[in-house]
Amino acid sequence: MIETPAPPRTSPLHDRHEALGASFTDFGGWNMPVRYTSDLAEHRAVREAAGLFDISHMAEFRVEGSRAAAFLDHVLAGRLSTMKVGKAKYSLVLAESGGIVDDVIVYRTGDDTFLVISNAVNRDAVAAAFATAQASWGSASGAATAADATGGTLEVDDVTDQYALIALQGPEARGILSSTPGVEITGTSLDELGYYAWTEGAFDGAPLFVARTGYTGEDGYEVMIPTAQAAALWDAALAAGADRGLVPCGLAARDTLRLEAGMPLYGHELSRDIVPAQAGLGRVVAVDKEAFVGKDGLSSGPADAPVLVGLVSEGRRAGRAGYAVLHGEDTVGEITSGALSPTLGHPVAMAFVAPAASAIGTELTIDVRGTRIPATVTALPFYRRNA
Question: What CATH fold (topology level) applies to the domain 306-387?
Fold first, then answer.
C-alpha cells in the first residue's frame, strides 16, 4: 500500500502571509512564502533598508543539564563547552562517516542550558543524531533524560512547535526592532549586543529571545517568541518599519542574499556526502577534541575530493544548480547554487570542482544549456557589507 505524503505544515504566521499576497512553496515539509512582490525588490530592501522573514520552519532543540556542554562537545564538530553564556556558535552535526548531517547554530543560554537551531529539512535527522549519540554516550535506556554514573543529568527536548522564529535583516534592523511597540529588551541592549550573541526581552508580556545572527550577509536579528504571540509581533514590526523601508521577504530573496554572502545551503553545498573541509568549513571542526561523532571518518575521503569554490561571470546568463563546470574540454565539477546577483549585477555561483581547478583566478567555463560561459574562480563571499 502506497502511503500518501503528509501535507506541508504551515507557519503560525500563515494567515498573515496570505493577507499580504504571498506566493508559497513547499520547503522542508513546510508551506512557506517564496515571495510577496518581486524577488529583486525584496532582495534590494534587505541590502538597502530591511526585510522581515518568517523562519518558523527552522527547528529548535533545548539541551540542558550538568552534562549538556560535554554532550554537545561529543555530538557536534565544534567545541561548545568553552562558549560563554550569551554567545552563539556555528557548528555541524556529522555522521560517523564524517559527512554533514546538518549545520546548526548553538546558543549558550545558561551554565547548563543551550539552544540548538537546525534546518527544517533536517529536524528529524538532527533529533535522531542526538538520540543515537545520547544512547551510545552513556544513557542506559536512550531516553530523553538520563543520569550517568557520576550523577550528571542531560535532557534534550525538541521545542520547535512551541515557538515562532522571525528574522529582521538589513541596515535599518536595529532601529526598527528598537522602535517596535511592545518590544522591551531586558538583557544586553541592542546597541551593546555583539555579533553571534543573544539577549532577552519581552513583547507585550511574552518572552523574547533575540539573537544577532542571520543568513543574508547583513546585520540583523532573529527573534524567537511563543507561537501565540507571533502574529502580533509580526504586525508590530511591519508597522514600525513602514517608514524605514521594511518589507516582508520570502525564500527567493533569502536564497540570493545568502548566495551573495557565500553561505551554504543544505542539500546544495552541504550533505552527508560532503565532509567539512570540502565545503570550506574545516575551521568549524575542533580536531583536537579527544573524540566526537564523525571524527574517525573525517580523514577517510579521497585526496582528490572536489572542493567548494566561488565563480564569477560576465553578462546576464547565470549557472544554476546541476550545470557542469569545465576546464578546457574536461568536466571538473558542478554548480551547487547560482544566480544573477541583484547587488553586484553579474552572475555568481558556488560549485564543487576538482582541487586542481580550484585556485583563485583559475579560468573555467560553465555549460549553460549548451553554451560555454567563461567563469573565474574567486574567493568567497561575493558580497561583504560595510562594517
Answer: Elongation Factor Tu (Ef-tu); domain 3 (2.40.30)
CB 337 within 8 A of CB 299: no
Which cell is 268 given?
546544495
Domain ranges of the chain: 7-301, 306-387
> What does the pLDDT read at residue 290?
87
Per-residue model confidence (pLDDT) at position 1: 57
Residue 43: phi and psi, rounded to 5, are -60, -50
Residues 254 and 58: beta-carbon distance below 8 Å: no
Q: Crossing angle of helices 123-137/68-75, nearest 10°? A: 110
Q: Is 172 annotated as a binding residue?
A: no
Q: Which amino acid is at 347?
A: P
pTM here is: 0.94
Assigned fold of 7-301 = Gyrase A; domain 2 (3.30.1360)
Backbone angles phi, psi at 120, to 5 degrees: -60, -45
Question: Which residues partner with 372 through β-bridges?
Answer: 367
Give the pairing type, strands 347-353 and 363-368. Answer: unpaired
Question: What are residue 106's DSSP bridge partners?
Answer: 89, 116
